[in-house]
């Protein structure tokens, strides 16, 4: 079964590129850019990755991103992730990046996009991995800051397929960004949002009704509202679930307690993703293995996860067919 999971073709729809920064690369880039880190060693960094909730993770995650300075840094970060995709038989990936994390530090938007997209193009040519890029607004920042970021994205819209919404969910509900999502849609961008990771089912409803998203990132908190679960299944709203992330951030007390199989059996279009693999202890195969081990998914159910992700991805119909 383990061999079956390793070889299963996978499609990743929830991956923060900054969250794929392994401590080894963080140290390399810190040295290259003359930046001091709060850790004495790679081991010390790894040991610091113990989280009690989303915010305790975000504080460490934003700090790590400080080592990313040049186009080459963003290229190296992205290329390292894509090599892991190749190992895990990820055939298509839709990658989030957080422009504000970098522009706030004076790194130009263009530098970030150029480094990431050069690596994505190389992976398409050399590894046969297709990809799309999604720009996330940081929800703890203001609506105006999101509008400014959308403005900076305008020269790069040929490289960006969608907007997303991430960072601290509690206290920053989706409706705070209704207008900037509307403006994004008018520019031809598609929409996704993190909702129902730590926050209530109401956030999932708001992401759908106010932001008009085509996918919910996480969404696992829907389970406390049975009517919502039925609605998500009926409208075929994909959830990009991140099992290891949910355990690391204490959304569920153990993988055995995770509601992934419940949602799958309810007919919700659930997918398996890695979120921030360098911080949460695993890439795509690790997430599939962890879910299988705890919840005993059958082979048809594991295949369904990939089929759901193909259905939910932002490729056109022709390119989706080419994945099969
Ligand atoms: N949730 C919210 N924001 C994030 C996450 C997440 O899991 N990862 C990176 N930014
Ligand atoms: Zn996420």
TrEMBL record:
It comes from the Bacteria. Keywords: Hydrolase, Metal-binding, Nucleotide metabolism, Zinc. InterPro entries: A_deaminase_dom, ADE, Ado/ade_deaminase, Metal_Hydrolase. CDD domains: ADA. The active site is at 197 (proton donor). It is an enzyme of class 3 (hydrolase). Its cofactor is Zn(2+). Residues 9-324 form the Adenosine deaminase domain. Signal peptide: none annotated. Its EC number is 3.5.4.2. Zn(2+) binds at residues 14, 16, 194, 275. The record marks 218 as: Important for catalytic activity. Coiled coil: none annotated. GO terms for molecular function: adenine deaminase activity; zinc ion binding. Binds 1 zinc ion per subunit. GO terms for biological process: adenine catabolic process; hypoxanthine salvage; nucleotide metabolic process. Gene3D superfamilies: Metal-dependent hydrolases. SUPFAM superfamilies: Metallo-dependent hydrolases (SSF51556). It catalyses: adenine + H2O + H(+) = hypoxanthine + NH4(+). GO terms for cellular component: cytosol. Pfam families: A_deaminase (PF00962). Belongs to the metallo-dependent hydrolases superfamily. Adenosine and AMP deaminases family. Adenine deaminase type 2 subfamily. Catalyzes the hydrolytic deamination of adenine to hypoxanthine. Plays an important role in the purine salvage pathway and in nitrogen catabolism. This is Adenine deaminase. It comes from Veronia nyctiphanis. The lineage of its organism: Bacteria, Pseudomonadati, Pseudomonadota, Gammaproteobacteria, Vibrionales.
